[in-house]
Design brief:
alpha/beta; Rossmann fold; two-stranded antiparallel ribbon
Length: 201
């Protein structure tokens, strides 16, 4: 891809992020709560969740599909739970979370585990399931992130079934991507997902 083409895709992403964030700001708290419950139910009943021993899960902000109920479900089911922690402006790592792990809000406004010298990170072959946030996504698995590239770099050599959670109201039919953007195995909204792989339903 030429530098000109790459620059144009970055421009398109910026415009789409702005548009989707404006839409997200207009979503009611009632819509978010109801949609988040349906998304959580879809995930917890899915074969890819039930078969996973280790789960990487983002800690949601108020504008994203809420993952707190899913987090509690994973603890109740005895799964190993990992969440992201930023360690620099360009890199994050997955840190094992327990029910009593201390959390703090980082400079991005996202809760993350407070650093600990004895913190546990992913073992080889983990995680089995990766649950990611987005600004927007398409049904065919293209994901528009917040622009820092943390998740794409993190996922480059990670295994696991990759699921992106998105409110139906924020789906876009056409998400501009580059070769470095990691495609999701499944995008889950509060509505049915007709393009989902049969083995995921």
């Amino acid at each position: 891809m030429t530098e000109t083409a790459s620059s144009e895709i970055r421009r398109q992403k910026r415009l789409l992020r702005k548009s989707c964030r404006e839409k997200a700001a207009l979503l009611s708290s009632e819509y978010r709560r109801a949609a988040s419950r349906k998304i959580t139910d879809f995930i917890r009943l899915s074969p890819f969740y039930r078969s996973a021993s280790s789960v990487f899960l983002y800690l949601s902000t108020e504008t994203e599909p809420d993952t707190h109920a899913l987090l509690e479900q994973a603890f109740a089911d005895g799964k190993k739970v990992y969440v992201p922690r930023c360690i620099s402006r360009t890199e994050m790592k997955a840190v094992r979370l327990s029910e009593d792990t201390e959390l703090a809000v980082n400079s991005y406004g996202i809760a993350e585990p407070v650093w600990s010298a004895g913190e546990e990170t992913l073992l080889p072959g983990e995680p089995d399931l990766v649950v990611l946030p987005c600004v927007s996504a398409s049904r065919d698995g293209r994901r528009l992130g917040h622009g820092a590239g943390f998740y794409d770099r993190f996922l480059e050599e990670r295994p696991g079934f990759k699921v992106c959670l998105c409110f139906e109201a924020l789906l876009c039919a056409d998400i501009p991507v580059t070769a470095r953007d990691i495609r999701m195995d499944l995008v889950v909204t509060e509505c049915s997902v007709p393009d989902a792989p049969e083995e995921a339903l």
